[in-house]
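Quick one: structure for this chain?
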Amino acid sequence: MTIKPGLRDLLWMAAGALLLLALTLVVVPYAGIDQKGSERFALREKRLDLVDRIRLGLASASEAEKSAVLAASDEASQANADQARAAAAEVEKERVELADLLASGTAGEKESFEEFSKRFLDFQRVDGELLALAVKNTNLKAYDLAFGPAAGAIKELDSALSRVIAKSATWPDARAIASLAFAAQASALRVQALLAPHIAEEANAKMDEMEAQMTAENRAVVKDLDDLGRFPELRGDSDLAAAVSSHERFDALRAQILALSRENTNVRSLTLSLNQKRKVMTVCQEALAALRAAILAEPIPGIDYGRFGRPVKPS
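Got it. Here's what it folds into:
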């Protein structure tokens, strides 16, 4: 009597055949590898692992660096800068370890590694300059002053002069007083309007132009306020005194803002990140890719990575 296998039996037979095939594909390729070949294969895998870890570490360091540049506070910038430095330090540690493993490497491996080492020095140099700038956040601090206390001082100046105009509306010199007050308000607002572009500007020459214009407008404000003080009705006037005080406070804040803006640390760090850092990151990764290819190309008796990178037994 013939016993026909059931569906479950057929499934088990198919699973067994697949398992046998898998074991054959895994075991047979390595059957021809002797002890020396096995050691060289293990060394190759360790080198490749280090190269991959270095590539990942560089990416992590760059990501943290960009976060430091774009952070909105000193604390966040410092935390991300510390993270970038730690990642770069780990890359250096792995680079030293890889150098030892490549002592017996091929000429191609050593050449690619030396290229990466040189480029990584550039990476560290740019990072050092960039992160030192990023944590200062002088442009952000300048913006905070410009749109905070400085804007408040201008608002108080404008309000005080508006009160002077209102109270003098029926005086014989009302038109002359209003004309001077309006002129002072307009000049002060023009100075304020130039602060933000100055903070955002990268070129020193353009900052010089804006500062010259601010100086001229500021002198006009001072002259208009002095001329207002010559009217008998405004001598000792509390509103005019408030306007003068507000302008003096604004002028002092303007000096602080311009000093911070001149340092330009946020603008400079962003420029470094988008230009020099991006370029050096690219060449580092290219050197590591070449090193990885050179390691894979190193011949090992009894093993060949083949077309798709899977170990196969040589024919």
